[in-house]
Amino acid sequence: MPFSEPTQHLPVPPVLPASQLRRLRAAQGLLLLFHVTGFLGLAFSREPTFYLQFVPLNLLLTAFLLLSFQPDRRGMFPIFCVVVAVVGFFVEVAGIRTGLLFGVYEYGKVLGTKWLGVPLIIGLNWLLLTYMTGILARYLPVPAFVRALAATLLMVGMDLCIEPVAMHYGFWSWQYDRIPLQNFKGWFAVALILQVYFNRTEFVKRNALVPFVYLLQLLFFFGLGWFIR
Q1: How far apart are CA 109 and CA 90, in angstroms?
Q2: Separation CA 129–CA 142 (nearest Å)
Q3: Does the pLDDT of residue 14 top 90, yes or no?
Q4: Cα distances (Å, whole numbers) of residue 25 to 21, 139, 205, 209
Q5: Helix ranges, 74-143 (H)
Q6: Strand residues in 127-176 grouped as ranges (E)
Q7: pLDDT band at 13 (very low <50, low <70, confident <90, very high)
Q8: To the nearest 10°, the Cα dihedral for 72, 73, 78, 81?
Q9: Is 127 helix (H, G, I), strand (E, B) or coil?
Q10: How many angstroms separate the CA atoms of 59 and 47, rounded?
């Protein structure tokens, strides 16, 4: 059965063997180094464009390390990853072409190679956010749909922190240089659909690196957003 909607069997934080714990600490240290370097470069450098060119690399590194801590990558997990990444990408294509989902916006050059006006890497971003927030919400002892709502709020909360930074550094730009409320409504709707899919897709939903990465990215974007005000 590829789909289930359990309300029990919540994940228990794993006790990692010493070798895995060392690997976890190494991954955390590398990600911390990249994010701190990026933060200092973007916040204090006179040439932030030098650091902006590494944004896609940082996202790819984060994805590689994060998914390497997924306990079992067989079965439905790769299907889940492909579906979420593809849906996220084409939602953005529909978004920029119609302006109906999130408002009127367009992507800049920071996120790398584009197809149909959307950076190819944006689907990976939707995947990582869906995956991380879905796993974090799994620790709540509540029915699956309530967990989906909680994870959706975590995704929208992250977007609230990302938006001012993304506009300031040219990740994308909004019509009239204003972030519309419609953007967050659209994010909520799409994220909720993806979170329901996350809950109903059967794979091991546990990752020791997820809490660190989510908090690190939240602090990174919140800190930069506060600094550029």
Answers
A1: 18
A2: 21
A3: no
A4: 6, 22, 20, 9
A5: 76-98, 122-137
A6: 172-174
A7: low
A8: 80
A9: helix
A10: 21
Is 151 within 8 Å of 136 (Cβ atoms)? Answer: yes
- Residue 109 to residue 210: CA distance in whole angstroms: 28
Backbone angles phi, psi at 86, to 5 degrees: -70, -45
For the chain, the average pLDDT equals 92
Site of tokens 């709707």: 189
Residues forming beta bridges with residue 106, ordered by sequence position: 173
CA dist., res. 181 & res. 54, Å (int): 30
> Given this model, what pLDDT does residue 12 score?
55
Is the pLDDT at 9 greater than 90? The verdict is no
Q: Work out the pLDDT band at 47, boundaries 50, 70, 90.
A: confident
Say what the pTM is: 0.91
CA atoms 22, 134, 51, 92: torsion sign: positive
- 47 three-class SS: coil
| CA angle, 56 then 157 then 95, to 5° | 60
- Structure tokens of 18? 């010493």
For the chain, which residues make up each domain, given as ranges? 18-227
- Residues 6 or more apart from 127 whose CB is under 8 A from it? 63, 81, 84, 85, 88
* pLDDT at residue 1 in the model: 43
